[in-house]
Amino acid sequence: MRRTVFGSALLVCLVAGSVAGCTPLEEPLPSSKKVAARMAAVESAWQGRSAARDWSEHFYPVGTAEQLPRGGFRTAADRLAYAEGRYLWRAKFPDALPVREVRGLDGRIMDMSQTQGPFEAFAALDRAGDEDGTAPLVVTALAPTVLSVESSMGWGLAPAWSFTLRGYDTPLIRLVPEFGGMPSVPSGQLPAAPRRMGRLIGQWSVPGDARNLTVLAQTNCGEDVSVRVREAPKSVVLAGVIRRVPTDQKTCGEIHRVKAVRVVLREPLGTRAPVDAECACALPLTDIAEAARRSLHGPRPTPSTPAAVPSYPGMAP
After folding, report:
1. How far apart are CA 159 and CA 177, in angstroms?
2. How far is CA 116 from the centre of its chain?
3. Residue 5 in contact with residue 266, Cβ under 8 Å?
4. Contact 155/104 with Cβ under 8 angstroms?
5. Strand-pair partners of 9
6. pLDDT tens digits for 227-276?
7. How far apart are CA 83 and CA 134, in angstroms?
């Protein structure tokens, strides 16, 4: 079943090194038949190739990669610090490391190729680094733990880090990333993708609501994107289609954009692979905090301008 979603989306501006993306676009939209043919070819190739086997036999998380403190972040300043990735270290680095295995609820155990040390875990959390900005969230303790996550293997317990934050009774828990690429279908096995198909760059969903999938797509200034969906037993093929929108070139500037589009699936994603039709590759799980940080464009807002903080499922109470 194929559908097109133009649903509510967040448009985000990112500084880039060229204004090439702000030039008026002349290419027409790809025909629905060409997009549908590409999606069908990707679905067929995925089902019959090693990509589907790789997806089902290894750990690729879907849903969410973190668990926020109970009730979310309470103040506008804390939500902004979270969105910007701004943290202050006031703890001791632990000696223990997270386990290097994922335990599926079906009894399967999968060893992870490597783990994440405490310094790397905090560096991944503190994306703002030494940049000036709003008051940071203060980390007072760090400890290894496990997080119940949904993945290509089904539900299971995966290694994670628990960050105790000043002022919160429950921690921020973040999944330890698996280091490696996403499964894909070799491009030589597929017909060429139509022009004006956009590259999708990530996905996430809210725990307990796996029919609602949020997809991130990167566009240039003067472009918009819609997402078409094709559901199958082993995959959900997603196609981003770029279209031109009226834009004031004087205000365009040196900008790229990231758009978050929410699609509603007919069935929960479950263990199916979310596959980008353009690259014929599985979409990685996107960190909600990273998406929120990237949505803060222009001059960095301060706690006195809380309206600038984007709202994401699970981010704010």
Report:
1. 9
2. 19
3. no
4. yes
5. 261
6. 999 999 999 999 998 887 776 666 665 455 678 888 999 998 888 999 99
7. 11
Distances in Å between the alpha carbon of 67 and those of 85, 163, 231? 15, 10, 28
Instruction: Return phi, psi of residue 188, to 5°.
Output: -65, -15
pLDDT tens per residue across span 119-176? 999 998 888 777 777 789 999 999 999 998 888 888 889 999 999 999 999 999 998 8
> Per-residue DSSP letters for the chain?
-EEEE---EEEEEEE-S-SGGGSPP-PPPPPHHHHHHHHHHHHHHHHHSHHHHHHHHS--EES-SEEPSTT---SHHHHHHHHHT-EEE-SPPPS----SEEEETTS-EEE-S----HHHHHHHH-TTTT---SPPEEEEEEEEEEEEEEETTEEEEEEEEEEEETT-SS-EEEEPPP-SPPPB--GGGSPPPPTTEEPEEEEE--TT-TTEEEEEEEEETTEEEEEEEEE-SSEEEEEEEEEE----HHHH-SEEEEEEEEEE-SS--TT-EEEETTTTEEPPBPPHHHHHHHT--SSPP-TT-GGGS---TTT--
Q: Is 113 within 8 Å of 177 (Cβ atoms)?
A: no
| Tokens matching residue 133 | 């900005």
